[in-house]
Amino acid sequence: MEPIVSIITTTHNIVEKGQADDFGLLVNLLDMQTYPNIEHIVIDNASNDDTVTLLKDYKNKGYIQFYSEPDTGKFNGFNKGILRAKGKYVSFISCDDFYHDITAITDLVNLMEAENADFSFSPSYCRHSEGFVFLFIPAMYNTFQVMPCPRQCMFFKKSVLEKENYFDEKFKLMSDYDLIIRLVLKKYKAVFFNQNYTTYKIGEKLTKNPQAGDNEAKAIFYKNYRNLYPLNEEILDKMVKTSDFPKELLDKLVTRFPENDKDLFYERCEQMHQIRLQALQQSKQ
Predict the structure, then answer these.
(1) How remote is the C-alpha of 128 from its chain's centroid?
(2) pTM more than 0.85
(3) Share of the chain above pLDDT 90, in %
(4) Residue 51, Cβ neighbours under 10 Å: how many?
(5) What is the dihedral of CA 70, 76, 78, 84, to 10 degrees?
(6) Per-residue confidence at 129, pLDDT binned at 50, 70, 90?
(7) Does residue 199 have a pLDDT over 80?
């Protein structure tokens, strides 16, 4: 029998926010997946509009399971979902995202089973809040500098999430990035699923408040790298703003990748530094 796959979505007042149609698209496309053993768990943050009524309707039709109670944010909701999940594999998709390829989960699970992978990553379409769409190609060699791919196009073994103590809920914007860093640092086995099956919307909290994102990134870097290299505010500022990492730190981080990929790791890190340095300079002109 195929292993259970648990898809976890968080909601809060999605009717009031005009996200009900987006959520309906997510639910219906997920129901059309060819993979036969999927559970869709919705964790609702005590919505006070018509969201619970909407969720009850989907539950009564057999599309979802849902739980509505107060939580402290999206990642608290995801952690609650993990605790309730029955799946061997877990993925986290927001209420206004969707899987546009209905055969993808079948192929993805087959790959993860064959490779005994701890997590997977894939290309995806990103819908920007300004209305344009772009293809996000994963950049796993840049994991330690920037978010390498969106969590929406990743699947994780539930047992790995349990072992690593779930999402760190003190990070309200980028706890998924912290999780990815932790998994790569500990050399969990990743597999690249070369199929674009996800369309996601970039988070508006980050795009509208980049300083908050920078501050959280500094805290994530400090948490994960402080035992590898002495960090101060000046170094962290360079790391966050232009991906300028101390060479001694990179020498420690490169060991998390295969020896044959060492040169490629340094090359990609320098490329990212130059790209972000140029972008910063252009923004000041």
Answers:
(1) 16
(2) yes
(3) 92
(4) 26
(5) -70
(6) confident
(7) yes
Instruction: Give backbone dihedrals phi and psi of 220, rounded to 5 degrees, phi first.
Output: -65, -45
Closest by Cα among 9, 21, 86 to 45: 9
* pLDDT band with cut points at 50, 70 and 90 for residue 154: very high
What SS3 string covers the chain? CCCCEEEEEEECCCCCCCCHHHHHHHHHHHHCCCCCCEEEEEEECCCCCCHHHHHHHHHHCCCCEEEECCCCCHHHHHHHHHHHCCCCEEEECCCCCEECCCCHHHHHHHHHHHHCCCEEECCEEEECCCCCEEEECCCHHHCCCCCCCCHHHEEEEHHHHHHCCCCCCCCCCCHHHHHHHHHHHCCCCEEECCCCCEEEECCHHHHHCHHHHHHHHHHHHHHHHCCCCCCCHHHHHHHHHHCCCCHHHHHHHHHHCCHHHHHHHHHHHHHHHHHHHHHHHHHCC
Average pLDDT, the chain: 96
Average pLDDT over residues 266-282: 94
- Give the C-alpha distances (Å, rounded to integers) separating 95 from 11, 40, 183: 6, 12, 25
* CA proximity to 115, closest of 29, 192, 34, 13: 192
CA-CA distances (angstroms) from residue 140 to 122, 232, 274?
A: 10, 25, 17
Question: Which two three-digit tokens encode residue 136?
Answer: 């996000």
Model pLDDT, residue 209: 81
Which pLDDT belongs to residue 284?
78
Specify the residue for token string 């795009």.
207
Q: Are 159 and 149 in contact (CB under 8 A)?
A: no
**Angle at CA 213, nearest 5°, toward 174 and 222?**
70
Cα separation, 95 vs 21, in Å, equals 10
